[in-house]
Amino acid sequence: MKIMRGIVLSGLAVVTASAIAAPAYPQTAEEFYKGKTLTILVSAQSGSLTDFIARQFAQAYVKHIPGQPEAVVMNVVGAGGMVAAASLQSKQPKDGTVIGFLQRNNLYVPLVDPSQNAFDPREVAWIGSVDKTYYSLVAMTRSGVTTADDLFQKELVVGATGFSNENRTLPAVLNQYLGTKLTVVPGYTDRGEVYLAMERGEVDGWASTLDGLTYGEPKRMLAEDSMKVLLNLGWDSPEEFQDIPNLSQYVTDPEAKSILDFFILPFQAGRPLAAPKEVPQDRIDALRKAFDETVQDPEFIKAMTDQNYAVDPISGDEVAEIVATLFATPETELEAVRKILKP
């Protein structure tokens, strides 16, 4: 028995020594994600356009992530998306199991509003952005304002939602730096309420996103010519409204161009995705690669185009470049921006 016990102990010693001597191999991204759940924080209400896009994206995205985790979409609303952004950065796990489907204003709001410093867009790992945003100024035909040139000659009352929303700030910049005659009425709950006000005659126009003109009542109004697109609020005209002038045809003052650049640049990252910067690099790489594959996935593209939404992506590195450019804005320009955003 003593001999046998010695043999067993000796064997255990060999196994233990081998275990200690064996090199420790890091867990691959596929091994990590297999059997796990990827939570996607969506900084918009359930049922909203952003929520719809996020859910379509989530279904396709996890198919391209190594290990193919399950996807769970969690709506975290508040402060124009800043609540979700701050939660991603400070409260969520840093292992790659939670990412954020954020908003373009998250790229610059902390820069111009000190009260929103719980999120720093320079301190996350950007994965990419699903689409770009384009704005156009529209007006009811009955208003008599039917061309971009009319904006400088005739008054136009336009509706808007929140005071700091782009559908108010862009008209405000046009008034201040280009001399348009827009009277902006903020405070409407959402786009549907603005269009209802337009039909009632309370207001005669507003600054709409391009995708907001491609379906429903706005699409019908444009087709019936009861509403017209007057001006594309960017430096180029999108394909859908190539015959409508854009800002490049009216902006000559360098200061005006700089201020407009600040507001328009984030449109290139219409719906950006991010992960906490502490996530291991190999998982960030896997999430970025999966993003690149998803935005080229024919099934995802079809699901989007069937609903009249274009997939127009940029990479995580490009989102980070936009953030760096915004944070390099001179303080004098930032002060001008803050005045526009301040009630």
- Helical/strand content category: alpha/beta
Model regions low in confidence, pLDDT < 50 over at least 5 residues: 1-23
Averaged pLDDT, please?
91
Helix share, percent: 40-55%
Give me the number of helical elements.
Answer: 13
Helix-strand string: HHEHEHEHEEEHEHEHEHEHHEHH
Main sheet summary: 6 strands, mixed
Secondary-structure blueprint of this entry?
Elements: H1 2-21, H2 29-33, E1 37-42, H3 49-64, E2 70-75, H4 82-90, E3 98-101, H5 109-112, E4 124-129, E5 135-140, E6 156-159, H6 166-178, E7 182-185, H7 191-200, E8 205-209, H8 216-223, E9 227-232, H9 254-264, E10 272-276, H10 281-294, H11 298-305, E11 314-315, H12 316-327, H13 331-341
Parallel strand pairs: 1-2, 1-3, 6-7, 6-8
Antiparallel strand pairs: 3-10, 4-10, 4-11, 5-8, 5-9
Helix pairs in contact: 3-10, 3-11, 6-9, 9-13
What report would you give on this structure?
This protein is α/β, with parallel strands linked by helices and 343 residues long. It has two domains: 30-132 and 270-341, D-Maltodextrin-Binding Protein, domain 2, CATH 3.40.190.150; 135-259, 3-Layer(aba) Sandwich (D-Maltodextrin-Binding Protein, domain 2), CATH 3.40.190. It contains 13 helices and eleven strands. The chain has helices spanning 2-21, 29-33, 49-64, 82-90, 109-112, 166-178, 191-200, 216-223, 254-264, 281-294, 298-305, 316-327, 331-341, and strands spanning 37-42, 70-75, 98-101, 124-129, 135-140, 156-159, 182-185, 205-209, 227-232, 272-276, 314-315. A six-stranded mixed beta sheet has the order 2-1-3-10-4-11, sandwiched between helices. A five-stranded mixed beta sheet has the order 7-6-8-5-9, sandwiched between helices. Helix 3 (49-64) links the parallel strand 1 (37-42) and strand 2. Helix 3 (49-64) crosses helix 10 (281-294) and helix 9 crosses helix 13 (331-341). Keywords: Signal. Belongs to the UPF0065 (bug) family. Residues 1-21 form the signal peptide.
